[in-house]
Inverse folding.
């Protein structure tokens, strides 16, 4: 089994001497503090007061603290109580370059940018004159290997919902032998009835997260509180491999996981098709992020693509959290080296706007079928354009690979030192995670880390995920590992 | 029957003399041309070339022309072929103040604004320090009468999907006697099965448009091409009144329409509840816009709210297209003078970001249930804040009432002059429409109007809708009426 996670490389914790050398390496963002600054418990009194005020308007339970974005810089987020935290959660993995990147700040001063901010077009009807050029220099310049088509959307859920729609149209068109919908299709669709509203389904995986609008939520299976009380579509759900770590010590077990999951996918598709709910698409994350940073092997995904194709379904890869460089490649699925591209690849978060790439077979032939008022936002596309230039100029994918190696090696050293507390260190690039012995320990570690100036996020039942910006460097990894080591020592 | 549309007021076409006086009235946006400038057929050669290039990337059938937003000003949109069109479609009703409004242009120069553009937070987790203040001075300052709670979202579909979710949570919580979900609810929801994933439904109306993500699309019944080939939820759909115009000549017929539709709503709710698909919410637009600018009376909506309440369902008013002043009031449902506010009011488009207002009963008690990564965009909220100040300062609601009266009176004069071509002139504020004898005539009128410099939109089967900005004045209405009169003469 080719190991997707680099978790099998074992590095010793860097010596203090070496660490100092790394820390003095050229910083990718100037103006960052040398280390976190903590003045109060976090959330501090100002955050607590504001959170209380916000709760009069809407539920504010999910608020961690209020931020001062003007004072935030690079990998550091300032809060409203004078604290400056090293941020390895980056707004749920949605900040590519860090806060107030000087090149972005300069870019938004231009009249072109300001014009775009205040004149938001209906992109599908009156696109701006440079729209084609803008798509080419941004989204198409970083398209997944082999993909040349893209449609823009607003957010991750919207991107997935529309990728499903493209798959449904493709599937029904195949069933009609390439013909357009019949008069009966059109008429019955207006009543939400078959054949116009067919009983098609999307197969998803346990532990997955694909968003929260209804079709997405029916494919999301990470936490019950996201789903409970909401009507859902009765679509098939397959198990996703759950590996044992270190990977190189559990090769047989993990390979068996792959095979069992694939067999179940196959069986679920057959069963669903037999009961008249054809599986039009199989939807998968390269790494199940919200669900616990669950990795799977290159072989699993390669076989999944093959199996999906044989079943006549579309293979949709949801790169909303994994896309845009965090794994050390632009798209996480590039690590799989598939024989052909996925059918549809969705994105959002660090890309500023949503959307999906698609193969030519998924090009919708009629207008207004994949459509909405805004279809994205050209001002976000312009920010992406600048951001991608900085990623190339500063070699940020390479930087992410290097920083990720230090981070993962450090996590592995910590799991060796504290095996009763943490285990299963894993990662690709800086997209790293470690699992705690239980949820109480995990939550306690997150709170303690925050109070010593490190902002991190949890995922799954008891995991900690690292989701830093692309300007996260080895020196930042060292600070985190030092403090995490100190926190683990306290238990 | 209290007539909601002002269509019963009959004004003569203004004399040329009076018209000149209006045209010389103070312009709300400086720098606009005196009249449209047309140099080529529209779309012109540059638009056609760009449209062809775009079609290599994605379907571009819906593109009307490519715009030059830097050259656009106020009510006028510039295209890439040197044409300058008077725009009464305003990006599918989503531009509040017109293009490049000088106050907006100035506002986005500030460091605060630029900081917001490049640092987009996860609003539900790390809101910016001025977020509470920003909600108060923007969204809450214009909240529908009696409403004090609001949640921000990204777009119209997202707002509706989340309003449904708030209604489902409220409904299930009522069923549990106020208790939180049980362990069985939680467990079964992870499998998309009842009781955790209940068979609840949302009742919508034929002719409605509520967006295009799956739950929204199941409530959308305006055009089959939006729906066909997509799986849909088997939710009840009621008829919406279809009035005869002029209203004052068809009082009995129209009142009967109201009563028949209300009776059917009642019956559909009972049937749906009986077959175990409880109607948790009734969803309605104040004016069915995409579906043909179908108006209904104040009595209809008042009775609908009452009936919905008696059935134990939530009353959701979708103000995505009608909200933000186009009808001469901030919210179209204010015209109904309801005894109490709707339960949920959704918005987007001219508000820059999406969201929904809700009554205290719909305040969700647990965090992360109405949630997503971005939960809107504070940079859009900041634009809204400036925009609302300009609406107040320049008295734009009053302006819209005045300009709307001229527009509607002119349309009525035209239907009297060309009864074989157009009929049923109707409107509230500048939210006006007229219906053509058939779709061919409608499309031909739209094309001819565009080629004489007026950008308009169609809706429903054969209607033309007017959806100008709030800076649309009597002088603009006069230009449109003049040209429409000339176009109708050609038939």
């Amino acid at each position: 089994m080719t190991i997707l996670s680099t978790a099998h490389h074992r590095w010793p914790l860097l010596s203090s001497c070496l660490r100092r050398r790394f820390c003095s390496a050229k910083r990718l963002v100037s103006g960052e503090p040398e280390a976190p600054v903590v003045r109060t418990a976090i959330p501090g009194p100002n955050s607590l007061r504001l959170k209380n005020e916000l709760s009069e308007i809407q539920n504010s339970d999910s608020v961690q603290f209020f931020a001062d974005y003007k004072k935030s810089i690079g990998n550091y987020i300032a809060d409203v109580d004078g604290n400056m935290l090293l941020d390895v959660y980056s707004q749920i993995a949605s900040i590519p370059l860090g806060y107030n990147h000087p090149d972005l700040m300069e870019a938004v001063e231009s009249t072109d940018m300001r014009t775009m901010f205040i004149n938001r077009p209906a992109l599908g009807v009156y696109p701006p004159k440079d729209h084609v050029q803008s798509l080419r220099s941004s989204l198409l310049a970083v398209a997944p290997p082999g993909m040349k088509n893209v449609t823009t959307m607003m957010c991750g859920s919207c991107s997935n919902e529309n990728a499903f729609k493209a798959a449904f149209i493709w599937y029904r068109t195949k069933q009609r032998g390439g013909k357009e919908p019949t008069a009966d299709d059109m008429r019955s669709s207006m009543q939400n009835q078959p054949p116009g509203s067919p009983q098609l389904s999307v197969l998803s995986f346990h532990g997955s997260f694909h968003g929260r609008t209804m079709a997405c939520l029916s494919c999301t299976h990470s936490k019950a509180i996201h789903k409970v009380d909401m009507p859902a579509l009765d679509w098939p759900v397959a198990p996703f491999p759950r590996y044992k770590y270190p990977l190189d010590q559990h090769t047989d077990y993990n390979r068996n996981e792959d095979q069992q999951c694939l067999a179940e996918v196959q069986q679920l598709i057959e069963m669903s098709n037999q009961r008249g709910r054809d599986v039009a698409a199989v939807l998968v994350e390269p790494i199940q992020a919200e669900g616990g940073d669950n990795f799977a092997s290159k072989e699993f995904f390669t076989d999944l693509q093959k199996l999906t194709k044989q079943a006549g379904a579309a293979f949709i890869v949801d790169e909303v959290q994994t896309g845009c460089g965090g794994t050390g490649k632009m798209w996480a699925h590039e690590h799989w080296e598939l024989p052909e591209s996925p059918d549809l690849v969705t994105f959002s978060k660090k890309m500023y706007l949503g959307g999906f790439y698609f193969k030519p077979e998924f090009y919708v032939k009629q207008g207004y079928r994949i459509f909405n008022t805004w279809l994205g936002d050209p001002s976000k596309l312009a920010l992406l354009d600048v951001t991608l230039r900085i990623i190339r100029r500063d070699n940020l994918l390479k930087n992410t690979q290097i920083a990720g190696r230090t981070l993962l090696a450090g996590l592995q050293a910590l799991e060796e030192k504290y095996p009763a507390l943490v285990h299963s260190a894993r990662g690709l690039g800086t997209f790293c995670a470690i699992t705690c012995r239980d949820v109480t320990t995990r939550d306690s570690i997150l709170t303690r880390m925050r109070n010593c100036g490190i902002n991190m996020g949890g995922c799954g039942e008891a995991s900690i995920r690292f989701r830093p910006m692309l300007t996260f460097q080895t020196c930042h990894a060292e600070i985190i590992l030092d403090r995490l080591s100190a926190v683990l020592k306290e238990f």
The mean pLDDT of chain B is 95.
